[in-house]
Amino acid sequence: MAEQQIEAGSMKRLWRFFPALPALMLSGCTVDLLQPAGPIGEGNRDMMVLEWAVMMCVVVPVIIATLVFAWKYRASNTKAEYLRNWSHSNKIEVFIWGVPILIILVLSVFNYKSTHDYDPYKPISKEMQAKVGAPDAKPLHVEVISLDWKWLFIYPDLGIATINELDVPTKTPLDFRITSDSVMTSFFIPQLGSQIYSMAGMETQLHLLASRPGNFQGEAAQYTGPGFSDMRFRAIAMPQEQFDAWVQNVRSGDNPLVAKEALDAQTYPKYHTAPPAPHDEAPKPAPVVYFSSVQSGLFEGIVAKYNVGMSHEDHGKNMGEKSMNMPAESHEAAPSNTGM
Question: Are 304 and 195 in contact (CB under 8 A)?
Fold first, then answer.
C-alpha cells in the first residue's frame, strides 16, 4: 500500500512538468525568430510553428504512452496482463507507419510551397508589398561585403556606405547583393527573414522587407573562428521620410560618424583589416562608420579580384569597364578570422 502511494505521488509530480513542455521545446529558438518584422520573417515563423505543432503530434503521444505504460506495467501491479508470446499487432503497425507517412506528406506540401514563396533570390512580390501598404515602392539596392569581424554596406544608388549599421526604409523591398572579402560566413537578420551565405569571389542575393520601424540585430550565422559571435550589426528600419533625412545627413558629412575620407580602392584596405588584438583574445567589434562618398564599382572589384582564372576581357567586364586598381595585398595582409 505504501509503495502504491509513493508511486502515485511520483506520477503526480511528473504530470506537473507536462504543461512546461512546449516552452522547453521552443527554448532553442531565439525570441527574434518569433517576433518577425516583415513578410519573409512571418513566413519563416509560421513554417517553424507548423513544424513544431506537427512534431508535437508525435512527441506528446509518445510521452503520454511512456508514462502510462510505466504506471500500468509497474512491478507492483499484478493485475496488468502480460502477453508472453505476443509478436504482432495490426493496429500498432498502422499507427507507427501511417502517422510518419502522413506527417511527411503534410510537411512536404508546406515545405514545397514555402520554399518557392520565400526563395532568397526571388524579388519581393507585389502581393507582399500590398500587404504592408506600399504596392508601388521601388526596391532599395544594398551591396553587402563581409570582412573580418565586421560588415560593409554600400548603397550604390545613393553613393554612401556604412560599417556595422544597415539603415533602411520601411515598406520598401530590399535587394541585397552579398559577397565576402574574407572567409565564408552567413548574412542573417532574424526578424526580417532568411539567411544566405557570403563567399569570396561569388555573389549571392537576398530579398527582404521591413514592415515596421525597429532596431533589429543582424549577425554572422556561420562559425568562422574566435570572435565570430561578436560579428554583429544593427539593422535600423525607419519611415521613408526619416530615411531620406538620414541619407542627407550622411552625404553632408555633418554626422560625427562620417569618415573624413571617401571609400575607394585606396582607403578600402584601411577598413578591410581588423584592429590588432592580443594573441589570446578575439578582436573587438568594429565601430560604426559612415561614408559620404563611395567609389563606383567597388563591390564588383572585390568580387573580381578572386576570379584569377578569368580572361582580361571578362575581368574588365566584371569591373564595369572601370579600373578599380584594387591592391592585391589588401586581402593577403588581412588577418583571417577562420578557426578551421
Answer: no
